[in-house]
Amino acid sequence: MNIEEFRDYCLSLKGAEEKFPFGENVLVFYVGGKMFCLTDISSFDVINVKCDPDKAVTLREKYPDVIPGYHMNKKHWNSIVMSGTIPNKLIKEWIQDSYNLVIQGLPKKLRESLTSTPTKKKRA
User: Fold this and answer.
1) Which of 68, 72, 80, 113 minimizes the number of CB atoms within 10 Å of its CB?
2) 117 found inside a domain
């Protein structure tokens, strides 16, 4: 996965936004005003994703290219080495998991607007 594919995937998630709150090189993706993924765009060597604490430990044990979140809360964030052997499918799955975890913590109305699918109106 390259930086463009990464960016496109993150922005494809409903309500996702990108910002540079930590300087011009750190691209951060948000949903509902909360971070769910970030990377240094000058190197794109690592991405950080939020993770369930128990799953975070399991992934670190299973994959050498998954390490405790660099400059993040090590309990809730993992860093994924992008030059490693992690398949794109898994990286996308972990980005989606991170997005979902953040959505779960949002206020109900906002959470519902991001998780609901439009319903068709019945004709009278």
Assistant:
1) 113
2) no
Domain range for residue 36? 3-108
Domains contained in the chain, number: 1
Report mean pLDDT in 10-residue bins for the chain, 124 residues: 96 96 96 96 96 94 93 90 92 96 90 68 50
Question: What pTM did the predictor assign?
Answer: 0.88
Cβ neighbour number for residue 23 with a 10 Å cutoff: 8
> In CATH, what number is assigned to the domain containing residue 69?
3.90.1150.30
Q: Letter for the amino acid at 58?
A: T
Point out which residues pair with 121 in neighbouring strands: none
Question: What span, in angstroms and rounded, lies between the C-alpha atoms of 27 and 18?
Answer: 7
